[in-house]
Amino acid sequence: MISLEQLLESRDKRAAHQRALMEKYPDCTLVCLTVQLPGSVKRDSRSLLIGGAGLAALLNKFDGFLSNTEVKDLETGYEAYLMVPLSPELVKHVCCELEEEHPLGRLMDMDVIGKEGPVSREALGLPPRKCLLCRQEARYCIRARTHTTEELLKKINQLINNFIP
What distance lies between CA 107 and its chain's CA centroid? Predict the structure, then answer.
């Protein structure tokens, strides 16, 4: 279990690492993959499976185009960083496609950062992500705490069980 303080500290460290990578690879677009799990446990067999599946999908999509790849298996969650020498808009389209179409894509967050900063779905004319359970915009359900952690984990476990052969 992690505390809110640990979670916030990990976000700060992730942002600092993203800035460092952007400085080191100025001609690349950064993809930062994290796993979306509710609750205070952010690292377990589920997070490693989801993160590994997301990384494999990204490696498959960007095969031959990667300048650098890093993976961090932290108590605060799985993180992968990929430096791709393609336009941020193209990279964001690919990542959004994976988030929507991969069997575990809804459990992955693929942030895309270019020279001008983060690229949003909205900037590309794409709709916001939907809730895992009710198909409303996810941000509304998260803010309102519409669903319990138990309901979300039940759905997550179902997705994982359907993914595992």
Answer: 7
List strands edge to edge, sheet with 108-114.
Answer: 68-74, 77-84, 29-35, 108-114, 117-118
Q: Whole-model pTM?
A: 0.94
Domains, the chain = 4-125 (3.30.70.1150)
Q: What is the pLDDT of residues 132-146, one digit of tens each?
A: 999 899 989 989 989
H or E element at residue 50 = helix 45-61
Dig out the tokens for 164 from the structure.
């595992």
The token pair at 103 is 């069997």
Q: How far apart are CA 155 and CA 66, in angstroms?
A: 33
